[in-house]
Design brief:
The chain is an alpha/beta fold. The chain folds into two domains: 38 residues; 85 residues, Cupredoxins -  blue copper proteins (Immunoglobulin-like, Sandwich). Helices cover 32% and strands 29% of the residues. The protein is built from three helices and eight strands; from the N terminus they run ααβαβββββββ. It has a three-stranded mixed beta sheet with strand order 1-3-6, with no helix packed on it. A three-stranded mixed beta sheet has the order 2-8-7, with no helix packed on it. A hairpin with a 2-residue loop joins strand 4 and strand 5. The relative contact order is 0.15.
Length: 136
Amino acid sequence: MTPEQPSAGVGREETSRPTPGFGAALGLAAGVVVVVVVAVVALTMASSGATEHRFVVAPGTGDRLDAGEWVETMPAELDVKVGDSLVIVNDDDRVHLIGPFGVRAGETLHYRFSEPGEIRDACTLQPDGEIVITIS
């Protein structure tokens, strides 16, 4: 075999490669699968009786807490179920830490609990600085 001559295997290998459009079609198919899975999960949550636990941090909450006031925004102990979601709307002018979640001023946190357990962590909205979320 000379350097200019390809081996017999090279020609076969090239003809067995997918056409350039195959990757795009595969990506589109994967995208359709993802959309279907998300829709099924959403329908399952809706039919499973999942609860949305929604709390709003009012404007001025941080200033009131700084002044030593107790501001009832959310409970220090929260019991949720797997599949429930936590929504925290922060209308205050500063970041608030609620467990492992930092919610910036003007932002909204959306979190769905996917497994049982307990979250015991810091919370800037609680007088003792701690929140306990029990997921069953």
